[in-house]
Write a structure and sequence with these properties.
By secondary structure, this protein is of the alpha/beta class. Helices cover 48% and strands 14% of the residues. It contains 24 helices and 17 strands. The strands form two sheets. An eight-stranded mixed sheet has the order 1-8-7-3-4-5-6-2. Strands 10-11-12-13-14-15-16-17 form an eight-stranded parallel β-barrel, surrounded by four helices. α11 (290-295) links the parallel β10 (277-284) and β11. α15 packs across α16 (405-424). The longest helix has 24 residues, at 46-69. It is globular, with a radius of gyration of 25 Å. The structure holds phosphoenolpyruvate and magnesium ion (MG). Residues 400, 440, 461, 463-464 line the site of magnesium ion. Residues 303, 305, 344, 440, 461-464, 511-512 line the site of phosphoenolpyruvate.
Length: 596
């Protein structure tokens, strides 16, 4: 950051949606619903109070349905999010929890709701995965909506905004975000929220710049203040000086031009200048991300993290729940390939509907395929659901965290039994369903030749592979600097897995986060991966970058990289060769760094 920018008031948050917006702030004031009155009620009033609560829930459902009706077809993923929020309004812990409070503790509906919400939040707080913080905030959004109806204040009206402004709010619910009128709102910033919150997802689908999690934006910024929102760097600049303003205007022009061009070509295949074709696929965790995956030009779904269907609920999903979800996914994707990863719980993702034993080292414990093999009933339910969905699209199955070949053999046996039982029941199943193993533990790389004989494809989960190779906890900030995707050791491991896959004639994909960072791309192309998957938004820029590379040159770069001693050496090598072409791509999707 230059001195001139530092001289402005700069607030750092989370860049939730790319792009730059420059304009006047509009502080969204709302009724404070944090503190509600506590009232005791007599036994004769219990039924009426329960009905008052149910009535408020129904009104909230109605409100969300109306918001949903106004969503245009091109933003259909927002409709999915609103559907999930409509379901949340009837979430067992929230809905029945509130009714229980009214009946048992004889308190008013507002108070009962607040107690139920606190209980849900407490449950979520125990879990380290940021996903749960986001789901807790979804519950809060849902309960606020009910509360607004109970209190008769009604939902806030973002749609009433009639000037070209940047919205500044403590928090925005997905329902509020979807009401943003693109012609009136240039961008938005909030005190709360994260990259993976539903509000962030909606912001990306609207393609308006957004920075979330700024903590004190609503205290510092007043309506009418001139602000710059840099969604790429996750930065907001308040009352910028002339020089900063000029710099950002030109940066915005550059960005808008680049974005228009990248988006225009997002459906052009990723083929290098010398004819090497790379599949570029999407990683998704929620069904609602599929539309974004298609819109951003993905060749398929490289990783569907199915555990999220198990995490935000009190009981396990049924075979029918899972089947419907996978079938919907298959129908939306059509011919495109879908890689469904089987349940990867444990480690840092725990489901409240499963009994967990205390573990000293959960990342090294009963996780992913290990858990599934020890819980064949739960595993079978998921496999049956996938198999039932298989005739509706191009589905393949992938087992996570394989560390021993026997795990794959055993998992395949359970899969076969599930297929047989479906056959007996006369339920159709695709005959040729492919099975893959994730390569995310060093032992899997070392025995990749053995594993390759058991599966139809590999997918490198480098997030975990790096964690387990360097023995660093991937969610521990204190050792984050040891997390080095470009380390020669990581490249050697990838290279070895690629070699085994090529010798066996099977596909090798990569689905770790490193696939989305342009600086890694020349190396990944040179390593000869067949398929790279990433968050949907990163796809257009990565595809464009692939089209600018020569496979032959990337192969030579890998040979040099493998001779280096450190990640910094490899990084220098890549920047010397490709610095210029990487510059715009990194700018386009920089995580905190605006330019190289
Ligand atoms: C990985 O480990 O690289 C991966 C893609 O899986 P997850 O991040 O879900 O563990
Ligand atoms: Mg993993």
């Amino acid at each position: 950051m230059s001195d001139s920018i530092a001289a402005n008031l700069v607030m750092k948050g989370i860049g939730a949606s790319m792009g730059i917006a420059i304009g006047k702030a509009y502080l969204l004031e709302r009724e404070e619903v944090d503190i509600v009155e506590r009232r005791s009620i007599g036994p004769e009033d219990v039924e009426a109070e329960v009905n008052r609560f149910k009535d408020a829930v129904n009104k909230a459902v109605e409100h969300l349905r109306r918001v949903k009706e106004d969503i245009s077809d091109e933003h259909s993923e927002q409709a999915y999010i609103l559907d999930s929020h409509i379901m949340l309004l009837k979430d067992r812990m929230l809905y029945e929890g509130t009714v229980e409070q009214i009946v048992q503790n004889r308190v008013n509906a507002e108070q009962a709701l607040q107690i139920a919400v606190e209980g849900v939040k407490k449950n979520f707080k125990k879990m380290p995965d940021p996903y749960f913080a986001d789901r807790a905030s979804d519950i809060v959004h849902a309960s606020n909506l009910i509360l607004e109806h109970l209190l008769g204040t009604g939902p806030s009206r973002i749609s009433d905004i009639d000037k070209r402004v940047i919205i500044v709010a403590r928090d925005l619910s997905p329902a509020e975000t979807t009401q943003i009128q693109l012609e009136r709102v240039k961008g938005f910033i909030t005190d709360l929220g994260s990259h993976t919150s539903h509000t962030g997802i909606v912001a990306r689908s609207l393609e308006i710049p957004a920075v979330l999690g700024l903590k004190k934006a609503t205290e510092v910024i007043k309506t009418g203040d001139l602000i710059i929102v840099d969604g790429n760097a996750g930065v907001v600049i308040v009352d910028p000086n002339e020089e900063t303003l000029e710099r950002y205007h030109s940066r915005k022009d550059q960005f808008d031009t680049y974005q228009a061009e990248v988006t225009r070509t997002s459906h052009v295949p990723a083929e290098t200048t010398d004819g090497y074709r790379l599949k570029v696929s999407a990683n998704i965790s929620l069904l609602e991300e599929v539309v974004s995956a298609i819109d951003h030009g993905s060749d398929g779904i490289g990783l569907y993290r199915t555990e999220f269907l198990y995490l935000n609920r009190a009981s396990l999903p049924s075979e029918q729940d899972l089947f419907e979800n996978y079938k919907d996914l298959a129908e939306i994707m059509g011919e495109r390939e879908i890689t469904i990863r089987t349940l990867d719980v444990g480690g840092d993702k725990f489901s409240s509907s499963i009994q967990w034993a205390e573990e000293m080292n959960p990342a090294l414990g009963l996780r992913a395929i290990r858990f599934c093999l020890q819980s064949p009933a739960i595993f079978t339910v998921q496999l049956r659901a996938i198999l039932r969905a298989s005739p509706f699209g191009n589905i393949r199955i992938m087992f996570p965290m394989v560390s021993h070949v026997e795990e794959v053999v055993q998992a395949k046996r359970i899969l076969k039994e599930a297929a047989k039982s479906l056959d007996k029941e006369g339920i159709p199943v695709a005959r040729d369903i492919q099975v893959g193993a994730m390569i995310e533990v060093p032992s899997a790389v070392l025995m990749a030749d053995v594993l390759a004989k058991e599966v139809d494809f590999f997918s490198l989960g480098t997030n975990d592979l790096i964690q387990y190779t360097f023995a660093i906890d991937r969610v521990n900030k204190q050792v984050a600097d040891l997390y080095q995707p470009l380390h020669p050791v990581v490249l050697k491991l990838i290279g070895q897995a690629v070699k085994a896959a090529k010798e066996a004639g099977i596909e090798i994909a990569l689905c770790g986060e490193m696939g989305a960072d342009p600086i890694n791309l020349p190396i990944l192309v040179g390593l000869e991966l067949d398929n790279i998957s990433m968050n949907p938004v990163s796809i257009p820029a990565i595809k464009r970058l692939v089209r600018s590379l020569s496979f032959r040159e990337c192969s030579s770069l890998v040979k040099e990289a493998l001779k280096q001693r450190t990640a910094a050496d490899v990084r220098r090598l890549v920047l010397e060769a490709y610095g210029e072409s990487l510059e715009m791509a990194r700018f386009f999707q920089s995580n905190g760094q605006v330019l190289l």
